[in-house]
Amino acid sequence: MIRKIVPDVINGQTLQKVTPRENVRFAARMMRDKKIAAALVMEGERLVGIITERDMTARVIAAGLDPDTAIAADIMTKDPDTLSPDDTASDAINMMRKRNYRHLPVVEGERVVGMVSVRDLYAVYNTELEQDLKDRNAFIYGESYGGIN
Questions:
Q1: Alpha-carbon distance 4 to 89, whole Å?
Q2: Angstrom distance (rounded) from CA 26 to CA 33
Q3: Distance between CA atoms of residues 84 and 45, nearest Å
Q4: 33 within 8 A of 5, measured Cβ to Cβ
Q5: Tell me, what's the pLDDT at 144?
Q6: What is the pLDDT of residue 122?
Q7: How far apart are CA 149 and CA 141, in angstroms?
Q8: Whole-angstrom distance between the N-terminal and C-terminal Cα of the chain?
Q9: At 81, phi and psi to the nearest 5?
Q10: Quick check: 45 and 59 in contact, CB under 8 A?
Q11: 8: Cβ–Cβ under 8 A, 6 or more apart, which residues?
Q12: Average pLDDT per run of 10 along the chain, which is 149 residues long?
């Protein structure tokens, strides 16, 4: 079965976003409070960037920036690569692997509809593997044949 990003991997997400002018500490606290590892950076409804935990580490802490004066625009990845809702889980995992990402925004036209993480994709593949094992066991042990051994 081909799994599309929406609705098979993500569905009905609440977007966690900051503006480019908000300070880094605000973004970090929002990410902590929401228990997320990446936030969308948006101007109104337009995606302009993404901030990740890696950005916080490399571009703030390691660079010696003050999180109270540095703003999201200073540390975000500008114009991030995106997925469409119709892209597959396989498309997403391949892009993440090739480009060393852990999160990708999902955009339909100009509208952001979600964020997919490597964790979301692993959950899909894990579910598929579990179902595959059940199906194989059913075949091997005859459960799919009405219990005849």
A1: 6
A2: 10
A3: 16
A4: no
A5: 54
A6: 86
A7: 6
A8: 28
A9: -60, 150
A10: no
A11: 89, 124
A12: 87 94 98 97 97 97 98 97 94 94 96 95 75 75 58
Contacts of 108 (CB under 8 A, 6+ apart): 6, 84, 85
CB atoms under 10 Å from CB of 109, counted, come to 7
CA dist 104 and 112 (Å) reads 11
CA angle centred on 105, ends 102 and 109, rounded to 5°? 155
pLDDT attached to residue 127? 67
| Domains, the chain, ordered by start | 15-80 (3.10.580.10), 82-149 (3.10.580.10)
Token duo for residue 96: 């993440």
In eight-state DSSP terms, residue 82 is: -
Residue 149's pLDDT is what? 47
pLDDT, position 133: 75
Q: Residue 8 is encoded by which pair of tokens? A: 């098979």
User: Quick check: 77 and 56 in contact, CB under 8 A?
Assistant: no
